[in-house]
Amino acid sequence: MDMPQNEDMPEGDAPVAAAVPDPIADILEWSAGRPTWQQDALRRLAVAGFLTEADKAELTAFVRKEGGLPVEGEPPEMVPLGAENLGSGGSSSGVTTRVLGIHDIRHVGRMAGDAHLTFSRDGLTAVLGDNGAGKSGYTRILRRVGSGRGDDPKKKILPDVFADAPAADATAIIDIEINGAKEAFTWSAATLGQRIPGLTVFDADATQAYVDFGNAIELLPFNIDIIQGLIEFCDEVREILSGQVKALSTKLEQTSPKIAEGTKAAAFVAGLSGKTTAQEIADKLTLSADQKARLKDLRQSVLAPQEKLRTKTVLAPLLDAAGLAVESAEDLLGDAELEVTRTARFEAKRKAETARDLNAHLFEGCSLPVSSPLWKEMWEAARVYAQTDSHPDHAFPQVEDGALCPLCQQVLQPEAQKRFRNLEDYVSTQIQQDAEEAAELFGQRIEDLDAALKEVEGTLAKLDLSQEDPVLAADLAAWRQAAQLRRASIDTWLDGQSALAPVPTAVAARLVIASENTRQDIERLTAGAGSPEAQAQAAELRELEAWEVLEAGKVGLEQRVRDLATQEALQACVDSANPQQITKFFNALKDRYLTESLRDAYAREIAALKLERLKVTVTPKKNRDAAKFIIDLDGRKITDCKLSEILSEGERRALSLAAFLAEQSIGGGCGCLVFDDPVSSLDHSWAQVIAGRLADEATRRQVVVFTHDLVFYDKLCTAVEGTGGPLDFQQLFHVRSAGTAGHVDPIRGKWNSQKVKNRIHELKTMVAKAAKTADESAGQYERDAKQIYGRMRDAWERLVEELLLYGMVQRFQKDIQTKKLRYLTADPVILSRIESGMTRCSTYSHDNPGANTDPIPEPKELAEDLAELEAVAEWLKKHHDTVK
To answer: Which pTM value belongs to this model?
Structure first.
């Protein structure tokens, strides 16, 4: 939606000043009932508008001290909020702030370190600069040290990212004046929370904060913002102290005495508090001689059977496993089984010899290793290949006349045919198969014997009978030694080279008996442990042992009491920072003072900025964190979409600017306002309205406007002239060769903002200086004179616009003010003098052809030309006075 153009639109209706509500009495009365540290926090918030990290540290230390907790050093005395700390000035209540200049900038983009931008102490300062001239660098610094919606204090200000050397933290010095006292404010990006009270910035981030992120604006005018600041700080205190409470809880849980639950000793520990005395602990933790003697008896009567039950419960399955393993090994090591093994060894050897004899008969004179297992595998592989690929339709091997070798596909000769037959006979003969099976049977018996002995070793390694049955333990050790000796003798005995070692004395049956006895003991011990008498003794033992543990850890319990006292004190501090009552008072203040004032102020700004066609209204919304007001368009609540999805970019900018100015107006307004391209995306009509509104605001406080828009700058100048307020103009530029920005043009900046009268005064100074230079250097005088004539030509042009046309037609202004026609003059002499003066200035300010030998006028002529300009200006002023 674009604003319709209107030739006769006024330059901006200044909002009518409204009576500022006075919540100071309520705030002072309420704050008197708050804890001391909260009163001091309110005072600091009222004075500075925010809490620094140092403030927060001091206040948190006082909270701890007030709660009886130790602190490092001595916190400063808390000073309550007083009427002298409060005023009508928004977040900088009672503070009149002026920003006088910025200089000594380091590591801020490509800003020049020697740049020095100054601002007028009063009225409006317009800072004009092309893109890349340094406006953003200055506004970013002001954003960090000031306040404004959408501000993120942790947002980085980058150095020159194209520089080779790494940069340090960004720094700058801002000259300020607070309540008439001047000071140099040193800012560093490394320190968060540095603020200049009363300095407020409106920029693109503020636009987003007001309307782009939803359908609500957030306003916290006059002194109400200190209440929200206190809420936010209370939340921080609660978070910090709650973390310490949690850490102590974790410590107490981890260091809790390891004693039986359900005992009176456990109940005593659970009942400890920060108020428990050392004497109370000592009285409870001293065991008498009778109690110690009883504890010793109970350990014999209760613990011994319990320990025995645990031991036997573990022992029983081990005895079972050992019995089975030993029994199997005893069978395999017996004479009868070994005779069977020897027979298998003999049969394997005999059948192997028979197979070798057959091999020698079939392959007499052949060197093939046909008895090799690998050779047999090769033969079987050849069989599969022949029956699958080479000779699928013939039996294997194919040996008739003309048959081909299944591998090389050559015709088999008679000798090869015979060899193939013999190979197949050898492989398929039962003798060879019997030899292999016999060898396998013998090998399996030896393998079973070794496996049984290995199992015995494994089970006996886990079985310790040295305490339960030392005799059986010794016999098992002897059995293991004998079994190893008998196994070592078997190999040579099979070869007939030695006799067998003796058979180990059997112990398997004894292990079975031991297992049965152990299970009977388990049943008896289990039944005894379940008796009422045994259970009573066990409970008594648990109780006495728990007290014994506590007595040994007496020092730990005393430390636990100290930790509990700290935890209780911390929790009390957390409770004291509960913001519930503060939030309740905060909402009451908004209901009582803010709602109607905001509605009125917003309506005034909407009218002043010509936004009535949007039909904007505001409705308060309860919120503990901010004073939020829902924006309605056309009298309808917008809930299912964002304002940024409805309004144009220009309308969002104008709407957010109205919200910003409303916030400032109901706050009383005495701080510096900085605007960064306030008319971005706005058409010329809206820009003219906003120029008028900012000019009006500059009559009440310091206003600084950064812009790249020359047309908007001209509108600002016109608007400020209309108010009669002071106007300062600064022009920024960047040096391409050095790659630096933020430079201030001291001549061009001042010159462009001056009227004819002031330009003539400055030209007189330049002419006087040039006259002195003429005697010293002709070349320098020529350069100075050409510059003076250029400036004088500018003054003639401004004379035409300002005095001859009396502002009826102005550059960058689209309307023609016909009411001023009566001030025009058609006096031919005056018109001729103006033309002649412009021509003469053009002649000497421009570059002339080389053949032109006209010399630069002497200083006397230069002064006469300037006097002519002044005379025409005086004639026109007198003419205006006559018309009036």
So the answer is: 0.54
